[in-house]
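Subject: sequence -> structure tokens, single chain

Hey, anyone have a minute? Need the predicted structure for the following. Not urgent.
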Amino acid sequence: MLSIDTAHRSAVEVIPYGGRYQRIEATVTDPVAMRELLEGADVVVHLAAIADPRACVEKPDLAKAVNVEGTRNVLEATPDGARFVFLSTAAVYGPAQYLPIDEVHPLLGADPYAMTKKAAEDLCAANANRLHLTVVRNFNTYGPGQAASFLIPQIAHQAIRESRIEVWNRTPVRDFTYVDDTVEALVKLTELDGLAPIRVNLGSGEGRSVGTIVDTISRCLGEVPTTSLERPMMGSPTLVADNRRVRGLLDWHPSTDFDEGIRRTLTWYQQQSA
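Reply:
Had a minute. Here:
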């Protein structure tokens, strides 16, 4: 399942659906559609969400309808015994009490996005007796096709279209994983054996500041001028994953160098802007 809120429409259009794949557009807020869509499913990877924290603040009722009730609809429509992978978020951890953040870190996230994702995790836990359940606390995925509301696309669009970069604050630190590596991990998680519910962090294990990202994008595009407004930042100052659990379970590690991932991402956005 895919949320267009999270993915650029043109990126969805190029996915090769022929042969073994079929594309069906539906909303997780429609329980009847979910029952029809998931009848007989062996594996469900639930990605649909209002994933922009600002959008969740602006429209909390919509965030609850999609992130909580939508997850309930998908869970209830999933047949007993199926494998269910739910994409949660590192935002549920809130302000880091220690770094890197492991899966037993307390869940202190208090903004609407984090709260809806925590509620969705609780719904998943309530179904753990009948599903092969994996909750994935994703840190930050980036790459071609990401919607403009996210950090790296925002910076890329400014640099490409306006030949300048302006950010609120350079200091927040986040853990970024290139989309190919995230997808590889999610696919491997669908292939795990066993009934016991699992919670895993999905991240690179490396923290990068907003300032580092700005400087990397600026350098890749020929030293684009940058400005920091020094406004108060949103969310936790630092979120970096302890990814030892997922690495051990899957024999997985992020293989895409950050600078190379940024170059690929910028090339895609440049093509879209041409």
